[in-house]
Amino acid sequence: MEINLNRPYGLQPSPPAVDELTFFSRQSKDMLFTDGIAEITCHAGIHSVGMTWNLCRNMFKTPFAIGIAVPEVDNNYTIEIDTDKLYPGFYDLRVTLDAGNGTTINGVCGFGYKSEQMPIADTRPADFNDFWKVALAELAAVPLNAKTGTVKHFNAEEINDYNLASAAMPADYDPSGHKCEEVEAFKIEFSSVKGKRIFGWLAKPVGNSPFPAMLVLPGAGCDSRPIPLEHARHGYLAIDLQVHGQDVDQKKYEEICGYNYDPIYEPIKDNYFRRMYLNAVQAVNYLLSRPDVDANRIAVVGGSQGGRLSVIVAALHPKVKAIVPAIAHYGNLPHLKWAEKCNALQGDGMDFIGTPMPDANPENICCAYYDVMNFAPDVKCPTLMNAGMIDPVSYTSGVFAIYNRLGTANKSMIPISGFAHDWSAEFDRSAWRWLDKIWG
Questions:
Q1: Is 133 domain-assigned?
Q2: CATH at 273
Q3: Of 130, 277, 325, 432, which one has the greatest count of Cβ atoms within 10 A?
Q4: Alpha carbons 370 and 355: distance in angstroms, whole number
């Protein structure tokens, strides 16, 4: 449910995954280890004669350990890592396969060591709640002035065709989860801060309401949006939102100052993310205004930036009852800044056990108000997350910092080994069933 790209369905996985190298561990399927020797195996899908490896902290470029993988007759290579030499956190294991003819293939495996004990810099500002209370008060003063467009109906075959051509989804990957086989859809719009009109697609089952609602929030970029037909046939009144105040079906999208370029850090309230976050919150207010929505069953979902916004909307709006943030982006910015600083100096970061506080410059001071991990303590609803263990965009040190700081005890994390910035059909299916249990 977290994928929502307006493009055809594709088969290629997201890099840095490579077809020739497959990593697994007989000790830990999810690549999360505790004490002792962490054993990781890499299977080579081509003929090969040897493999070397190096080990870095997550998002670091300079290794602190190197070695030679132990070859096995079945074209597997075993790497043993002594966790006594690690600090709690996440690591990137990089390998180079020697094919024996002058060709080499590089791959990466991410893993965690005592991830629940990972040190996280405390950058939540003292006036964080007051800052967002003022922002929410500004939003509350904006009348919705909602409008809807022309209704179009879709049957099962049309939903399948649309998924493949325009929603980056398989035709029908969860038939047992269907709640209906006919849905209707139309464009919506409503007002938000700064005089912006916010647009989205709404899809819902044909039948008796009220329906549980699902707000689907987009990944990064300024793009057209797909109609959430799959979500509707799973029984939801679903909205896929264009959070930037652009229409959902423009032929061309312009980049936005402050978002795509020239970010504003001073004054903090003029940073672009403030209005983007509020636009997403306003979509929940719109859902609550509809008589066909069950106000006690509102879920917020999304991947990447959409995962980020899912956490933030739940933190800012008490009517959100469940969230599914997938590969959530923009968490634990201090770790990223630390890695960038060490990379520039060719440091491996192993001279420091914790996570250094970021420099007190305008960018870092401002970003603390928008870092997803600083919203996480205010999330009180059930939460299901996932993490790509080799994701270079929504890096594991960021995703798990969000998860570790969630203010709800009803939370679950699904780490996915060998998974980058990508989508998983089985995670979606698991999320649908999880929500069914949440709603009872």
A1: yes
A2: 3.40.50.1820
A3: 325
A4: 19
Q: Provide the terminal-to-terminal Cα distance of the chain, rounded to the nearest Å.
A: 19
Total residue count of the chain as it appears in this document: 440
Domain boundary among 72, 89, 117: 117
Give yes or no: residues 99 and 170 share one domain. Answer: no
DSSP H or E segment with residue 296? strand 293-303
At residue 90's C-alpha, the angle toward residues 88 and 95, to 5°, is 130
Contact indicator for 90, 397 with CB cutoff of 8 Å? yes
Strand partners, 70: 78
**Are both 284 and 328 inside the same structural domain?**
yes
Residues of the chain whose pLDDT is less than 50?
none
- Is the pTM higher than 0.90? yes
How many Å is the maximal CA-CA distance in the chain? 69
Residue-wise DSSP of 162-220: HHHHHSSS-S-S-GGG-S-S-EEEEEEEEE-GGG-EEEEEEEEESSSSPEEEEEEE--S
Contact 69, 32 (CB under 8 A): no
Query: Distance between CA 41 and CA 101 in Å, rounded?
Result: 23
- What Å distances lie between residue 43 and 156, 281, 409, CA to CA? 40, 45, 38
Q: At 281, phi and psi to the nearest 5?
A: -65, -40
Structure confidence at residue 1 (pLDDT): 76
Residue type, 290: R
**Residue 6: inside a domain, yes or no?**
no
- 44 & 168 share domain: no
What domain range is 93 assigned to? Answer: 21-117
